[in-house]
Amino acid sequence: MGERWCLIIIREAFDDVRRFSEFQKNPGLAKNILAARLKHLVDIGEFEIRPASDSSAYKEYILTERGRSGFPIVVAMQQWGERYLFEQGEIHLVLLDKENGEPLPVLKVCSSQGDRLGPADCYRQRVVTEVRGEE
Amino acid sequence: MGERWCLIIIREAFDDVRRFSEFQKNPGLAKNILAARLKHLVDIGEFEIRPASDSSAYKEYILTERGRSGFPIVVAMQQWGERYLFEQGEIHLVLLDKENGEPLPVLKVCSSQGDRLGPADCYRQRVVTEVRGEE
């Protein structure tokens, strides 16, 4: 999922882009690259292909549950980019809450008690993947 | 920041890796790639170089505020990977809370009122970057 164009395509999908021709509006994304990336994203289970919702002959690329689970990654990257990648006066996109039109609060890493955690509050440990039960 | 090795190097830094020789322990990361990626990360302001904290001749790569702000991205990717990238019975790393040894709660995108938001609850809008005031 880490490849740059894959992330851009997934971000577009979160903006409800579904068709090849819509994804292709992204400047700089060549048709053959888009086709290859979409195929890869379908192969690894990020997208599934469905008939068009308007009964036309088009097919639509819809995020699977696995794909939709990438939403916090896309939001974290978007918010980080909003903060660091633009100069004063430069035009860019910000992520807003439909309910009130306000910027989304910046994602915070929190404990189960809701306390904010930094890198020093966490550690990584080797585990064997558990058998996934019903959720 | 989106390049794969850059993200891996930044993740190591969040685990308190600071020296070239320590970063180099990562299997698959060739010395010349590591040197080039670290230089790039210093150039774009993710890391700063400092003299070693133990007064030895080594230098240390320390995340800047900009670099540390990538923590939610790294956590979101780690948690997504924990969920989707490993087969049952496979050994991998999970991110735990030092306080209680429990897995970190999965990052959620929330409104300022604390309600959980999905992609359909958000929109992106063009803005001109504001002059940054004191925070």
The total strand number of chain A stands at: 4
Dominant shape of chain A: globular
Let me know the largest β-sheet of chain A: 2 strands, antiparallel
Helical fraction of chain A equals: 25-40%
Distance between the termini of chain A: 24 Å
Specify which chain pair forms the largest interface: A-B, 64 and 64 residues
Q: How large, in whole angstroms, is the Cα Rg of chain A?
A: 18 Å
Helix vs. strand class of chain A: alpha+beta
Strand order of the largest sheet of chain A: 1-2
Proportion in β-strands of chain A: 15-25%
Low-pLDDT windows of residues of chain A? none
Q: What is the average of the pLDDT values of chain A?
A: 88
N to C succession of SSEs of chain A: HHHEEHHEE
Oligomer: homodimer
Q: How many helices of chain A does DSSP assign?
A: 5
List the helices and strands and how they pair.
The structure is a homodimer of 135-residue chains.
Chain A: H1 4-14, H2 20-23, H3 31-43, E1 47-51, E2 59-63, H4 65-68, H5 71-84, E3 91-97, E4 122-128
Antiparallel strand pairs in A: 1-2
Structural account:
Two copies of one chain form a homodimer. The first copy, chain A, is of the alpha+beta class and 135 residues long. Chain A is built from five helices and four strands. In chain A, strands 1-2 form a two-stranded antiparallel ribbon. Chain A is globular and about 50 Å long. Chains A and B meet through α1, α5, β3 and β4 of A and α1, α5, β3 and β4 of B.
